[in-house]
């Protein structure tokens, strides 16, 4: 196995582990309501504990992370989450869940900035960049899907603490990934953006005055608001609206993650033949149509007594398939902006991506949590039409801006 292949495999493994941990927040939100006696709004603060550390750490370290080293940053992230999993087992309380997701947030900031930056170091050209970006994000979604089966596999209704045993496995995977990455060489030469740390920070902020970057960051914010809003609260939607048993509610949410994974892997192929603008426009329009036409049928479905997934009517599987269409949006947007700037600016640009994505995820989860509590679980997801429509406007603006920049650069 050559070194580039080892580096790519390490990125896949690291992202896969964090996919399970990050997106177990919806499962832990459901568990916290059942086991720790918190309401919907308080439970939704777990998303805040996860996303705010991502935003804060990314803000402070992204611009000068190349000076620390991407490999060292990823090793630190793996060590943090391995320890946090063990603390969750011993704590077994809402405060330990908060600590777990705060630790995961800090570690993921280190991992994501490093992964996105290393992609630029080991790929050549926009097509290769887009392909690796989409495939890594696709693997991330399959990690999320695994979480929806992994947690129920450890959950025993006769033992309310049994689900915590999953963290023994996750901590063990973190340690194994640490060992694999430690023995992998990554060429990080030429990645330091400025002459000193202050210059690095100035370069990061200088990106914020570019119209392309501003519109892109708004787009990333809106998308993650949509994705996390659905992903975090889908288990609760399945439990409240479809009245599915707890384990089946969690496993059913995996359909969304699987469809996201398939959509992102497919996007890497489709975008090589079709303009990214038409791909994104099609995806957003179909997503809006699914909220308008498919969601009402899901809400009004007569489910009956459910003992296994096979007992669920076909319409119950339909709405999570929205993941097929929202899936390509995020990696394509990221690849478009990252492949358009020099590799020595990838770390500060990724820092901005992570910050705005984290804020979008937190706000999305909080808004949906508020809607679940105040307008009902059966109505909450209808409000996703608003950010989807705004996202369509942003994608159109990105097309105009990139066309103008292409013309001006040609001149």
In short:
77% of the residues lie in helices and 0% in strands. It has 411 residues and is mostly helical.
Distance between the termini: 44 Å
Number of helices: 19
Poorly predicted sequence stretches spanning 5 or more consecutive residues = 406-411
Assign the CATH class: Mainly Alpha
Note down, in words, how this protein is organized.
The chain is mainly α and 411 residues long. The protein has one domain: Growth Hormone, Chain: A (Up-down Bundle). It is 77% helix and 0% strand. Helix 1 (3-22) packs antiparallel against helix 7 (94-122) and helix 10 packs across helix 18. The chain is globular. Mean pLDDT is 81; it is low at 406-411.
Features:
411 residues, mainly alpha, Growth Hormone, Chain: A, 19 helices, disordered C terminus
What secondary-structure arrangement, pairings included, does this model have?
Layout: H1 3-22, H2 25-35, H3 40-43, H4 45-61, H5 65-68, H6 70-91, H7 94-122, H8 125-154, H9 166-182, H10 197-206, H11 211-240, H12 246-252, H13 254-270, H14 276-299, H15 315-318, H16 323-326, H17 329-338, H18 346-374, H19 385-410
Helix pairs in contact: 1-7, 1-8, 1-9, 2-11, 4-7, 4-18, 6-7, 6-9, 7-18, 8-12, 8-13, 8-17, 10-18, 11-12, 11-17, 11-18, 11-19, 14-19
